[in-house]
Structure formats: structure tokens, C-alpha cells
Specification:
Layout: H1 2-23, E1 25-30, E2 35-40, E3 44-52, E4 56-67, E5 70-78, H2 86-98, E6 102-111, E7 114-122, E8 129-137, E9 140-148, H3 159-165, E10 168-169, H4 176-181
Antiparallel strand pairs: 1-2, 2-10, 3-4, 4-5, 5-9, 6-7, 7-8, 8-9
Length: about 180
């Protein structure tokens, strides 16, 4: 009986130790910007600037959190007045992200019928590894970045992928991708 009680107690302790890690992830929804994502911890909202030779300097909103030495960041820049330049602005953003860094992965991403780019890079000076996804939707450049910092060191963890792959867009109509482009 005593062994059964000890085993049950050990099981409860193990379950309690793993539960907070799963409970730390929250869904964040921006109805005004038409997307949602999941991230651990509490996000801080910041104002920032994004810049590029073609993009110029634009105001942006950044949602940021850090959990277990992984930095999660969503950056949204409004290019609605230049929406017809989406492919060029997306291309410049991905180029600037990987420029002069060790590129580990470069592929297309697809969310709700909309295409973007996913890249993984090693940060300079052993500054960590970043998985990022870039999408240009409704005149907005949306970037998700998850950087595994050297203090964490587990560059193969699935947490950055969970973050980037949680992105969803809210588009209207029976064929969301088509109705978005008809606006």
C-alpha cells in the first residue's frame, strides 16, 4: 500500500511539474489587424520602426515575450498605402533578415491559403538561432520571429515552430484567399 501511495504521489508531482509549461501558452487575437497567434507568457506591446531601402522607414507595432530564454516577437508594419508593392516589400524584409547571417532554412509558408516565407538563421557572434515567418496580408507586413538564445542552447526545440505555425488569418467569404484579393 505504501509503495502504491508513493507511486501515486510521484505521478502527481511529475504532472504538476509539467503542467505550467503547457499552461503558459496563450492565444492572442487582433481582430483589427485580422490575425491571431499563440505565444507563451504575457506579451508586451511596443512601438518600433522598420526600415529598408525600398520600404523606407515605417511605424510598426511589436508584440514581444520571453520564456525559457526564447524570445517571441510579432512585428506588424502598415503598408496599406503601398499594398500593390507587397511582393517587393516582403522580398526586401526576408533579404534584410538573413543578410550576412548563416541561413539554415528558406522555404515558402502557407497559412489559410496565403503564401509567405519561412527562414531560419544563426545569429552572428553565437547570438542564438531564429526561426521567422513573413507574410504580406491586407497591406500589412507581418513578421513572427522566435529566437532561441544561447542561455537556452536547445536549438532543436519545437517551441519556435509552435509559435510560428500558430499564425492564423481572419478573412471573409466562402473562399478567404480569393475574397481578400477582390477587396
Amino acid at each position: 500500500m505504501r509503495i502504491t501511495m508513493m507511486a501515486a504521489l510521484a505521478g502527481v508531482v511529475l504532472a504538476a511539474m509539467t503542467a505550467p509549461a503547457d499552461a503558459a501558452w496563450h492565444s492572442y487575437i487582433s481582430k483589427a489587424m485580422g490575425f491571431s497567434f499563440e505565444a507563451p507568457g504575457v506579451l508586451k506591446l511596443e512601438k518600433a520602426k522598420v526600415s529598408g531601402q525600398l520600404a523606407g522607414t515605417m511605424d510598426a507595432v511589436v508584440y514581444r515575450s520571453v520564456d525559457d530564454n526564447i524570445e517571441y516577437k510579432v512585428t506588424v508594419a502598415d503598408f496599406s498605402k503601398r499594398a500593390n508593392e507587397g511582393a517587393v516589400l516582403l522580398g526586401e524584409a526576408t533579404f534584410l533578415f538573413q543578410d550576412k547571417k548563416k541561413l539554415r532554412m528558406d522555404t515558402f509558408g502557407r497559412v489559410d491559403g496565403l503564401y509567405g516565407r519561412k527562414l531560419t538563421i544563426d545569429q552572428p557572434n553565437n547570438g542564438g538561432r531564429t526561426l521567422a515567418a513573413f507574410y504580406f496580408v491586407n497591406g500589412r507586413l507581418i513578421t513572427l520571429q522566435a529566437t532561441v538564445l544561447p542561455a537556452n542552447g536547445d536549438y532543436e526545440t519545437g517551441e519556435p515552430g509552435r509559435f510560428v505555425d500558430s499564425l492564423a488569418f481572419f478573412l471573409s467569404g466562402p473562399n478567404p484567399a480569393r475574397s481578400m484579393w477582390q477587396r
